[in-house]
# Entry
Amino acid sequence: MKKILLTACLAVLVTGAAWAQTPARDIAGSYSGTLTISLGKPIDGEALVMEGKSVSIEAVSDEAVNFTLPDFSFEGMSLGDIFLPGIPVATEPDGSVSFGENEAVPFEFLGGMITATACISSLGSRVRDGRADINVDVVWTNSASFGTEANLPIYVRFSGESEAARFDLNRDGSVDVSDVAMLVEYILAH
# Structure
């Protein structure tokens, strides 16, 4: 009986794994890690680093995702969520998934007091083997009204691991049939 149940589970998981072989579905999920933010200059050793942050990537087609950075905050102010829809993704020759060109999306924070735009930078933003390194280009569009440089860039980088990576039992960078086979072997042996 145990073998029949495990075989049925394996068949369902194999079917699911075959369905998931697109760039968008390969990277879809929640990621936990650090957010690094630099106001007005590229990220360096002086940038603000915040631990325990998360992002989510949702597949909306085989080659496009929605990206959400919940509760974006800076200088102690919780500004709100950054939601970037329909971002193109593609699998690179090295197996990583890259983000393509995407339009900057306008945002209003703090009831419209702060206005900004954001998009994912296609340069250096990748997901590979359950690890995400994503650069979000934010522009504070009404910064001049606060006595600072007009259209002040805010450099944002998220680096973290997929929460699904914990199911990568053989540590090969993907959750697939080989991980299920390892689990089945373990269960049958015990």
Notes: The first strand starts at residue 29 and ends at 39.
